[in-house]
From TrEMBL:
<dbReference type="InterPro" id="IPR007685">
    <property type="entry name" value="RelA_SpoT"/>
</dbReference>
<dbReference type="GO" id="GO:0005886">
    <property type="term" value="C:plasma membrane"/>
</dbReference>
<dbReference type="InterPro" id="IPR004095">
    <property type="entry name" value="TGS"/>
</dbReference>
<dbReference type="InterPro" id="IPR004811">
    <property type="entry name" value="RelA/Spo_fam"/>
</dbReference>
<dbReference type="GO" id="GO:0015969">
    <property type="term" value="P:guanosine tetraphosphate metabolic process"/>
</dbReference>
<protein>
    <submittedName>
        <fullName>RelA/SpoT family protein</fullName>
    </submittedName>
</protein>
<comment type="function">
    <text>In eubacteria ppGpp (guanosine 3'-diphosphate 5'-diphosphate) is a mediator of the stringent response that coordinates a variety of cellular activities in response to changes in nutritional abundance.</text>
</comment>
<dbReference type="Pfam" id="PF02824">
    <property type="entry name" value="TGS"/>
</dbReference>
<dbReference type="InterPro" id="IPR012675">
    <property type="entry name" value="Beta-grasp_dom_sf"/>
</dbReference>
<dbReference type="Pfam" id="PF13291">
    <property type="entry name" value="ACT_4"/>
</dbReference>
<dbReference type="InterPro" id="IPR002912">
    <property type="entry name" value="ACT_dom"/>
</dbReference>
<feature type="domain" description="TGS">
    <location>
        <begin position="401"/>
        <end position="462"/>
    </location>
</feature>
<dbReference type="InterPro" id="IPR043519">
    <property type="entry name" value="NT_sf"/>
</dbReference>
<dbReference type="Pfam" id="PF04607">
    <property type="entry name" value="RelA_SpoT"/>
</dbReference>
<comment type="similarity">
    <text>Belongs to the relA/spoT family.</text>
</comment>
<dbReference type="Pfam" id="PF13328">
    <property type="entry name" value="HD_4"/>
</dbReference>
<dbReference type="InterPro" id="IPR012676">
    <property type="entry name" value="TGS-like"/>
</dbReference>
Amino acid sequence: MTEFNREEERRQILYRYKHLLVTCKNIVTRADIKLVRKAFELSLKDHDGERRRNGEPAIYKSISIAQIVVEELGLGRTSVICSLLYDIVQKDRISLDEISELFGPKVTLIIQGLVKVTNIYNQNPSLQSENFRKLLLSFADDVRVVLIIMADRLFNLRNLENKSVEEQQSLSKEIEFLYIPFAHRLGMYNVKSDMEDLALRYLNPDVYFEIEKKLKDSEEQRQKYIKDFVDPIKAELDQFGMKYKVKARTKSIASILHKMQKKQVEFEEVYDIFAIRIILKATPKKEKSECWKVYSAVSDLYRPNPNRLRDWITIPKSNGYESLHTTVMGPDNRWVEVQIRSKRMNRIAEQGFAAHWKYKGGKSEEGGLDAWLQDIREVIESHGSDSIDLIDSFKADLYHKEIYVFTPKGDLKQLSAGATLLDFAYSIHSDVGDKCIGGTVNQKNVSIKQILNNGDQVSVTTSNSQKPKLDWLNFVVSTKAKNKIRQTIKEEMLKEADLGKETLKRRMKNWKIEFCDENIRKLMTFYKYKIAADLYQGIALEQHELSEIKDILTDKKEIEKIVPEERPDYSSKKITKEGEDVLIVDENVSNVEYSLANCCNPIFGDEIFGFISIGKGIRIHRLGCPNASEMQTRYPYRVVKANWTDKGSASYQAVLHITGDDELGIVSNISDVISKDLRVQMRSISVDTNAGSFVGNVTVVIASTEHLDTLIVKLKRVKGVHRVTRYDPVN
């Protein structure tokens, strides 16, 4: 390389460094500048002579990442220093102890997290592995770790053009999978849009370039339409003497594609390709009223769609986003979205709220950044090493929509769309959730499964005897609720295991049998347990006879002398009961008793399975049984396949849950429908009424699921009945 080129590179490095300082608005004191300069000089010295694959000086990348961190993510001095230094720390050119001495513990902690994440990537870039969990645990230590790593991945994404197709697709999939959700959840919509477009470019280039070309071809026509639309609004706002800027924002290519796929339309049929953004210069006290004044001016000029008004200035989104959105009918009968916000709101919308709350002198609040980070950590830690389950939970949490409900005192609670009464209970306090047995929604009694809607007024009823159950995980949607339920059940299991262990110790002492690893392994092998805790819990729940355990340990019974592989396997047998050949499980075997489980009341026609119970034969459960998940997960070796024969038994018990209006004679009408069906017997009926509504349970004896479905249809036709469902009592 010529001396001229080296000199040009030095000038370019100095220019980029000065531009970084100018952009970083909170680097104002001499002490700040001194620290940043020291970090820059260390990075420059250790990168001296080192080049990237494209031939550029390696220091370019460090400065560029720091620039993204400042300019696009809104962070400041500490993050700039970390961005400049973590690469040389990762390469062991400077130690963490030296970093701590020069820059303090906070910089050291963040760099330590950055190095940890970088090492994980180098070891195994696969996201569906234990590395994914470690990666997120690093993120949750300090949000600046994820933001700087996000800047690093964004820099790489913007410089993929000359990389191999494999490298392009690998990084794009990673960005799509992990970092786009992060950017979305942290409110960084500009970064998110950029990532979406670039990822789409490499994952689906044909579609990307087709839409890009159509946008360029329609640019002139679009700009003319925007001018015709905006000019009357400007004239109106000028009359009010307001200070503002109007911007036209074209949707990202990825957003346009999503709209085309969602609406099943062609590019030419997507009418909201752009949105108008009006940004006001207003003081914090007046910004809301000024935004509504602009809305009034816009809606006077153009007819608004009342179903498309979005008020996020009264109640901001959970990621801090504030804006007033309306969709109005513009010229040529085209719908146009108008976004109205203040300069402060716009800054948060573009850069995200993370930097502006905790790291620029602002104060966090309940439900804000710190709470979200804690939720993320709880989710990660609760899933153990099950990365696939973690991924689903994590992404679902990031992309959730929100509803707003009220406590009895009128306090506002923000929940995920689809949240139930139980989610609401856990949002108040973990103890309230654990003890929740039901509640009221808009003064009507409801179950813990009741799904909440915007504006509902909700109260909770608790009982000290209530405990979380495994099936609760099937209908709660919030991370906090799921995590607390899992934690409580796990604690309960550990208590039971401790009790079972003490019971076994005491009995073995009485039997004069040593309590040792060899004997415990003998029991675990016999009962096919993988961990000792499950054995102890089984003993506590009286699933194993202590006399049988003694015989196993002393080898007194002939059956216990059979090695486990030779023990009778109930998982591939035909189960019969004299006079009722209704269940088949492969081959024939005699003298195996079965019974229908009371927890789910299987009916001929249900999808079923068998569960080998200790001393009680085989219990038949529905696949949808509230206890099915626990049995199949914890005791898979005791689960047997089962199917009905073509005959079926004559009668099965079922419970119907009925809700409706509390009208005169409605119970009599329900009873009349049931009694007229000669193949149905009604065992009992119970009804509760409240505020003009009724909730009732009807127990019937019926022949099959097909017949039950017919009865449900008949009951739904009764005047005043709103809903009829099959009810599963939970043990």
